[in-house]
Amino acid sequence: MFNRDYNENPFIVIWELTRACELKCLHCRAEAQYRRDPRELSFEDGKKLIDDIYEMDNPMLVFTGGDPLMRPDVFDIAEYAVEKGVRVSMTPSATPNVTKEAMEKAKEVGLSRWAFSLDGPNAAIHDHFRGTSGSFDLTMNAIKYLHELNMPIQINTVISRYNYDHLDEMAALIEELDCVLWSVFFLVPTGRGQEKDMITPVEHEKTFKWLYELSKRVPFDIKTTAAQHYRRVVIQNKMREKQATGEGINYQDALMNGTTGQIDGLGRAPKGVNDGNGFVFISHIGDVYPSGLLPIKAGNVKETPLADIYRDSEVFQNLRNPDAYKGKCGVCEFRHVCGGSRSRAYAMTGDYMESEPYCVYIPKALRGKKKNVV
Questions:
Q1: The pTM is what?
Q2: What is the dihedral of CA 14, 256, 329, 343, to 10 degrees?
Q3: Which residues are within 8 A (CB) of 78 and not within 5 positions of it... i.e. 6 or more apart?
Q4: Which of 44, 95, 129, 234 is least surrounded by Cβ atoms within 10 Å, i.e. has the fewest?
Q5: Strand 113-117's sheet: what is its strand order?
Q6: Of 48, 43, 44, 50, nearest in space to 15 by CA
Q7: Residues 290, 313, 9: CA angle, nearest 5 degrees
Q8: CA nearest 155: which of 226, 215, 201, 94?
Q9: Phi, psi of 178, rounded to the nearest 5 degrees
Q10: How many helices (H) and strands (E) would you count in the chain?
Q11: Can you tell me whether residue 351 is helix, strand or coil?
């Protein structure tokens, strides 16, 4: 898993089963609608896609949406994948579709994990962000029942100006809920997401440092999305700690081989995973993107095998070449383990190869030059 060549095969595949959803989330990447799109990949299309995914060294597969539970055949699709040996998890929306029967069926077919979104430590914050009253209470009740089923639970949280001041409360709630993973997303202004809803670059950096300190004392794992520069913070802190104890560490070896430990705060997400680099997103109609937050279409699985799109398309090949990144990202010593959010670079500049605009770090290669600027 950790030695796979991202030029050939992804580490993780996200499949948007449908864009139908009953929620109206403020940040929704998919701009989800209440009704299903008649152009969605069919069950037969889905089976072929799963076959192709399996042949790409069997990466992890995540069902997302919209709301995957809006598809009546979601568990048939999941069962086909699980029986083939694919590890499948799902991120349904917290709606009345999350019944005890649905959760029992998920466990029965062998889903490896169920992920829910929680964007605030209370109903007022969460329900505002999700655009639907009652979402918080429904989520909490569903989590309680999943524990009764012994189903591992992941919590996804989008950090924005709406909850930035409540992160300590959020962390306490995640611990109280006994989740295996807190997946922390940093808002990218795409879909319904707005630039005004993002936290500032300095607040990003403060949150990364806070997450690293948190990761050392909580029982759950922490993973970040659209915050590749969190890896840089993890490396910097681990190196300082080793130096403080007199333990020798080779800087370049740490960067290139990840010898500083878990690069993304999670052993299952090795160094360098980024949009199009170990990561691929398939839309409800089969369009292939480097990620769901980077809306540059590279092909469609109805017309071209997924492996060919992932390996050969120009946009994917560009994204897998950090040395070609522009600005400070292209010369940063952390570019091969970080690379910045290509999605945020595109959303803010229109160029997915530009520098991460919400990173405060000045690479070593630029520090001398900065002093000479008039």
A1: 0.90
A2: 0
A3: 63, 88, 90, 106, 109, 110, 111
A4: 44
A5: 221-225, 181-186, 153-159, 113-117, 88-90, 60-64, 12-16, 279-282, 287-289, 299-300
A6: 50
A7: 65
A8: 94
A9: 55, 50
A10: 14, 10
A11: coil
Is the dihedral angle over the CA atoms 12, 18, 19, 22 positive or is it negative?
Answer: negative
Contacts of 207 (CB under 8 A, 6+ apart): 159, 164, 167, 186, 199
Query: Angle CA(210)–CA(216)–CA(220) in degrees, nearest 5?
Result: 95
For residue 222, the cross-strand partners are 182
Residue 370's alpha-carbon distances to 76, 354, 366, in angstroms, are 57, 19, 6
CA distance 110 to 106: 6
Whether the CB-CB separation of 352 and 345 falls below 8 Å is answered with yes
Structural contact between residues 342 and 28, judged by C-beta atoms closer than 8 angstroms:
no
Whether 329 contacts 322, CB under 8 Å: yes
CA–CA distance, 199 with 181 (Å, rounded to integer): 23
Do residues 8 and 52 touch, judged by C-beta distance below 8 A?
no
Q: What 3-state DSSP class applies to 368?
A: helix
In the chain, % helix, strand, coil (3-state, to 5) comes to: 40, 15, 45
Cα–Cα distance, 42 to 18 (Å, whole number): 11
Is residue 182 within 8 A of residue 269, CB to CB? The reply is no
d(CA 316, CA 222): 27
The whole-number pLDDT of residue 332 equals: 96
- Helix runs in 177-300, H state only: 201-215, 230-244, 251-257
Decide if 97 contacts 67 (C-beta within 8 A): yes
The two structure tokens encoding residue 38: 């008649």
Residue with tokens 């995640």: 174
Q: How many angstroms separate the CA atoms of 308 and 310, rounded?
A: 6
Q: Is 49 helix (H, G, I), strand (E, B) or coil?
A: helix
Distance between CA atoms of residues 29 and 289, nearest Å:
13
What's 172's DSSP letter?
Answer: H
Given a cut of 70, the residues of the chain with pLDDT beneath it are 1-3, 23-32, 246-271, 369-374
What is the maximum span of the chain, computed from C-alpha positions, in angstroms?
Answer: 66
Phi and psi dihedrals of 319, rounded to 5? -65, -25
Question: What backbone phi and psi angles, to 5 degrees, belong to 46?
Answer: -65, -40
